[in-house]
Amino acid sequence: AQSVTQLGSHVSVSEGALVLLRCNYSSSVPPYLFWYVQYPNQGLQLLLKYTSAATLVKGINGFEAEFKKSETSFHLTKPSAHMSDAAEYFCAVSFSGGYNKLIFGAGTRLAVHP
Amino acid sequence: GAVVSQHPSWVICKSGTSVKIECRSLDFQATTMFWYRQFPKQSLMLMATSNEGSKATYEQGVEKDKFLINHASLTLSTLTVTSAHPEDSSFYICSARVLTNQNTGELFFGEGSRLTVL
Fold first, then answer.
1. B107 vs A107: CB contact, 8 Å cut-off?
2. Chain B partners within 8 Å of A50 (Cβ)
């Protein structure tokens, strides 16, 4: 069965510090992977996506993620956190071959403190 | 980029009334839209897949008579919460797939609609 696991429901970093949000997936077919960000009372905004091209994916706002098939991971990173990065982050997966549903992880709330 | 708009953003209603939420793709056509429900501090739960011109496909455990979905055009899907009760209070988010990206699963999300049932 396909699934997505986000390790750590809450992550707290200092402004300027490295951000690392973890995501692992389980899939029997090649996945497409996404990271979304959600600000309070808003919908989701796509940060970046992996669709079987380059394994290191760069997204908006300085975020990037690396697809590692051997580790079944797609962790999200940003070298230097900014206060405006505080939000909820969701990892999501969909599967090739016409299976169109997105499965979301439980989410990770990122707090950035001065 | 593709824009998906939801209306209303906030709605408060009395128990027993019905509430309609609209989801529009503003600058693209969407044969498929998805409706999600999000409880406070939780992830998104897929409720149903809305297909233009046909019946929606509901996820297991979602009452189709409770949550009526209509996808009458390539740019509009509606979710009607019938006979709403306080337990239906939630944040409802729609998403639409850009027509040319059917296989990648990339979705564009609306801003969400917060329903509060008194």
1. no
2. none
Per-residue pLDDT tens over the stretch B73-109: 889 999 999 999 999 999 999 998 876 655 555 678 9
Asked if A46's CB is within 8 angstroms of B43's CB, the reply is no
Tell me how close the Cα of A106 comes to any Cα of chain B, in angstroms.
Answer: 5
The Cα B40–Cα A7 span in angstroms is 19
Say yes or no to pLDDT of A24 above 90.
yes
Tokens at A102, concatenated: 């997105």
Q: Are B96 and B32 in contact, with CB atoms under 8 Å apart?
A: yes
Contact criterion met (CB below 8 Å) for A108 and A10: yes
